[in-house]
Amino acid sequence: MTTKLDYRWHLREVMATRGMFSTTDLRPLLAERGINLSASQVYRLVVVRPERLSLPTLMALLDILQCRMEDLIEPVAARASGRKTAAAGGDRTAAGPAAGVGEFRPKRARITPAGE
What we know:
The chain is of the alpha+beta class. Helices cover 33% and strands 9% of the residues.
């Protein structure tokens, strides 16, 4: 029986550990290395796990973040096919706005009436 492989994309977490919390921080650094992506392409690269990635873009990311490929791409065994909970909103571990980034979690806003 052949084991299928999958991967986890850790670009957002690696950026956070380097103090880069906005996708707009990454775009000019990529351009300096000859990788010209639109703002939406950079956003998708950070937020969504890429299915395809050019080697020049990968090398630029490794250079910018001073990391190794293993830091960005983690090979894992593929999940068994079954119901997808993310479509129903049940999977909070996926990279998303509420999920946080590594150790960094959003802080709940506290709104108080004026004068308190």
